[in-house]
Design brief:
Pfam families: Ras. The chain is α/β, with parallel strands linked by helices. About 35% of the residues lie in helices and about 25% in strands. The longest helix has 17 residues. It binds guanosine-5'-diphosphate.
Length: about 170
Amino acid sequence: MDKAPLQLKIVLLGDAGVGKSSIVLRYVTDSFKTDADGTVGASYMGKIINFEDVMVKLNIWDTAGQERYHSLAKMYYRDANAAILVYDITKQESFDGMIRWYNEVKQNSNPNILVAIAGNKEDLVANENVPPENAITYAESIKAVYRRTSAKNSQGIEALFKEIIFKLHPEI
Ligand code: GDP
């Protein structure tokens, strides 16, 4: 375990309020805030994970969702290994917004970027507004990983990041 860690850059994208900061907070610190302040620009959190003989350092960038930050977000996803596109399962407009984010990423990122879609706020499934089959069909059409998550109750969060790591580095 004396090798330098494998570095992976992961960026979260999606409209404001879908839960990007909350997903990162849940994954890195295992906590949740109901009154999260909106991210301004972008914020960073690192996490190191030890596998049997590989150490992986995740460099996670959480970007602000507002329209005015789209061009700033480009600086973060341009050289990222993976992008997590987040929408809120209770808001159809956040799903449409996510598709706009994907189209931008596709134009500006490294062509091998791994894309994952997180349908967040799964704990509010009773108020679901985006038909899951639409999300699954869309994810398949862009060859993206699709996961349902809840930053509030942790569902799917760990699995989402694990799947990204293993898809990027199947040898681990
Ligand atoms: P961001 O703008 O995409 O970073 O969204 P935030 O992480 O700031 O979350 C926006 C709001 O949604 C906050 O009030 C969070 O507490 C709430 N939130 C985030 N994730 C979840 C979730 O999985 N379930 C529920 N019920 N609320 C969530």
